[in-house]
Amino acid sequence: MEIKGIHHVSSITANAKNNYHFYTEILGMRLVKKTINQDDPSVYHLFYADEAGNPGTDFTFFEIPNAGHTYPGSGSISTTSLRVPNDDALEYWLERLQKYNVDHDGITEQYGRKILQFRDPEGQRLSFVSDENNQGIAGGKAWNKSPVPLEKGIKGLGPVKLTVKDPQPTEQVLTELLTFKKAGSYSSVTGGKEDTLVFTTGEGGTGAEIHLEISPDLPRERPGRGSVHHVAFRVDNEEELAIWKDRVREARIPNSGLVDRYYFQSLYFREPNGILFELATDGPGFATDEDIDHLGESLALPPFFENQREKIEAKLKPLDTTRPHS
What we know:
Layout: E1 6-13, H1 16-26, E2 30-37, E3 40-49, E4 58-63, E5 76-84, H2 87-99, E6 104-110, E7 113-119, E8 125-130, E9 156-164, H3 167-177, E10 181-186, E11 196-200, E12 209-214, E13 228-235, H4 238-250, E14 259-260, E15 264-270, E16 276-284, H5 309-315
Parallel strand pairs: 1-4, 5-8, 9-12, 13-16
Antiparallel strand pairs: 1-13, 2-3, 3-4, 5-9, 6-7, 7-8, 10-11, 11-12, 14-15, 15-16
């Protein structure tokens, strides 16, 4: 029984309409589900992914309209990576980011891979990572109706970076409770000391890594718009998730118990540095309640919210997700 890799990353936006524009029109990802935050049905939960919303490709956003500014720091998920097919794709993305005036750091190298770090309009910390030499878990398939050419498109989530003051408690959870193994380290700044530890699980590679950055002097992050809420790891099925629930309980880590998110089953807990982890099943997936060709075009509600649809829709700001792509 092994964690297979990254399942999804969930972040915070203050404006669903602008967020939808950036991730679909600029980054060319597919909106595979327009639904609600199940813990606060008055706001949207948007899921961007590959063509079918395969696990390991979902980058999701809770809309919190009054979310304040993020003050980056420790105890945080500090960078989300997006996988692209190869080094040539990074050159395409560099030009595209410049065309749309997206804040970026140029193409650099990290842990033997070429990367391109950038920020979305709310300061969300992002990085394209090249799959040129990836030997691990396969990526998804870019959407064929994207404004971005298929051969340059985003294939899923890459390494997720956590920033902590003290790595030991987080490392212990990753390696002793979960199934990650320490695979190496690198420096986050050119010529600096190696301050980032790399952990891998499952088949390994870009879709199965956690990068743990050690920053003992940073104050704790104050999250807001542009911050990450949690990272989820892939579990094969519900039976395995139930076993994981018992393991987390035996480790005396407070947890949510099993939570039915309809599109997948979940278990949430915080590791000792305060970062929220989720374990999520690979299925049943996003085509459960919508035709695969029309994912994300209308408001999808899990069956246990359907009787509240009228009330929910009355509170949500209209968000047109059916318009043709440029």
